[in-house]
Write a structure and sequence with these properties.
Helix content: 10-25%
Radius of gyration: 16 Å
Number of strands: 12
Structural class: alpha+beta
Length: 177
Amino acid sequence: MRKIISRSAGHAALLTALLVGATGCGGPDAFQVSEACGTKVDPDLIGQLLPRGEELKTKDTFSEPKQPRCEFEVDGQEVVGLRGDVVEPFIKPLEINERTMLRLGNPMPADVGDGATISDHAAMAVQACTYKGEKSQYVLVIDGVENPEDTAERRRLLEEFLRSQLPVAMEAEGCRP
């Protein structure tokens, strides 16, 4: 199901975004996004990771309550994916996804949660938590990121996004540190 984003969107599963007016050069400014996958996000951070465009849409899917998923679409093209997972404590998400992160460009560890990997076009963080009384882990992944064009700046923003979003996403899913 596709949803067009508007200011009046209030449903928790909807991504709320506002397109800020055009710049003096005629191109659009960054989208201001306040919610993604049913959780609040830092509007400045996520907006910087999305390409500029005229229309932002999202496709929200939840395979089950502990697995929020959303895909961002700008001007009809799917660009960035965001997902969270509550997984068993013995699973090693960073090791399992090592090849994928390598394919996405120069993976490097980051000091976020219990462990994180930042690549040129994606980022993943893992944090131990308790979910419904059971020891678990929360995994947050953002991928398909091409913006900003400067790779070092993109990687910096990806790490900053993980750092700010991981505790918010965990809280929203009921996965307590």
